[in-house]
Amino acid sequence: MSEPIRIYCDDQEYPEAFIEYRVRFAQSQIDVASEAAKSAGEDDKYWVVRYMATACHIPTVGEPITDPQEITAKRVSADCEPFIQGWLDDSLPTAVAQRRVLGKVSARPSSRKNEIK
Question: Are 54 and 68 in contact (CB under 8 A)?
């Protein structure tokens, strides 16, 4: 199984802030999680973050969030500084972009994906 991708906050004030995402998932898994979130009546933009994250350390005004299941819109908006909220919002797209870059770097030179057209 692939190692998760860890996204660190690049602000020197938050060197301990990170979130890890699993790198292998299928759209069907995301669809299942989305349906579960809808059926639970959650109107929470962080449902996919909770589903994809494997570990985290997110600074708050109190105790940090260390369980991805605690990442909710209510908790983040109440307890996190706007800078951390923005970093968290960008973290999943950043992980996807890193996964794509890693995939290109690790592809074999003879791979058709690396052909220049």
Answer: yes
